[in-house]
Amino acid sequence: MITADKSFGFTDDDIEEIVLDSRKQMNHALFVPIIGERSDGHDYIDMAIQNGAVAVLSSRDISPLKEKYPDVRFYQVNDTKEALQEIGYMERLKFHGTVIGVTGSVGKTTTRTMIATALSAGKKVFQTAGNANSQVGVPITMFQMARSGADIAVIELGMSEPGEMTRIAQIACVDAAVITNIGIAHIEQLKTQENILREKLHILDGTPDGGILYVNADDPILSKLTPDIIHDFGIAKDISLTIRQYSKDDYPLTLSVKGDHMLQNASAAMHIAEFAGVDTEEAKDKLMSFTGVTGRGETFKTKDGVTIIDDAYNASPVSMKAGLDTLSQLEGNRKIAVLADMLELGENTLDYHREVGVYLATLPIDVVFLYGEKAASIGSGINAAFDAPDISLGDSDIRNRAEKKPTIEYFNDFSELKNTIQAIAKDQDVILFKGSNSMKLTEIVKAFKQDIV
Fold first, then answer.
1. What CATH number did the domain enclosing 434 receive?
2. Domain that holds residue 128
3. pLDDT, tens digit (0-9, with 9 covering 90-100), for 192-212
4. Total-model pTM
């Protein structure tokens, strides 16, 4: 359990930011050296001080440092990450507004941003910056939140291994939580969807009595949740809990971003806005101006008339299918899907890729570029869908396959992929980029962004 433990004598007086990267120019910062797999932040304390750190946590002996830097405050701790989390909890206690927590297998960042957008119609809102949703990101977010002067905060909480959600949820202590879906992201570590569900539900750890959980009614797992099921997992047993469902059809919404998944995210935003007392019509107007989050479905047009769907930050079977749905719904001459490997899917990874291919075969998509060894199995699924008279794989049934099989090209060389896409892109084309972040499709998107109208 996280505690507001000041046993190491910490005070945030005169500290204006918390920094993990010693290379960053700092202003009255607390530097927290994190011990990672490949490097130890303690080796860079001198650099951090030279760049403006006025306070430092350390699990090494601080005596030589105190002698060397008498004007810097040093705090001796057993574990710098755990100490940072204790500081995060101390900072959380200073925020007296409402805290909304968002988690889920996919769509966390987009949903969080949509909620903040809707709430901004009537509230001063703070939200997680970038992707700071981890065991070190959430404590820093709490520090920033405590100084924001906001009425309400929307905090993203992520996890990739057992126990991680509990740790950060006990820091954030959310008043209401949103779970977007239960997919198979991180199934390589968590093994089953039930385990993923259990871990996501730990977002309720730290929630006060009377907490509210919003769940996506269109998700087959979340739609069956009850307080008793949650209590049977050993979660939120000591509090009264209300579950509220949201669905893509709850509000009449017209969005700039396309796809049922975007309507689901926007519905969650509307429900939270209503919960917070924001005028629903004004919240709708705010959401109409939402154009997406970079790397997560943002759509833009180049000066040459090419429409780009930038969904390249990450990928799972659910989110890749959603991206393909969006591509199929946009007006354009040719619809081109650039798909790369989906990672961390465990032993059935190739089956998941083939399943995406079978699903793609139901959509009016003209060209498919596949990058990576695993992504090649998407092509296998497409071919099987068109070659077999009747096929079903996973939740994809292609008896209603598209009229025309798309052209498929395979790539293992990134430069070749990039050069080919840039050479063939023409006016009125619509191009979707989707794959795991480490596949670096964002680099191709950035090249197109240089040509925005």
1. 3.90.190.20
2. 94-288
3. 888 889 999 999 999 999 999
4. 0.83
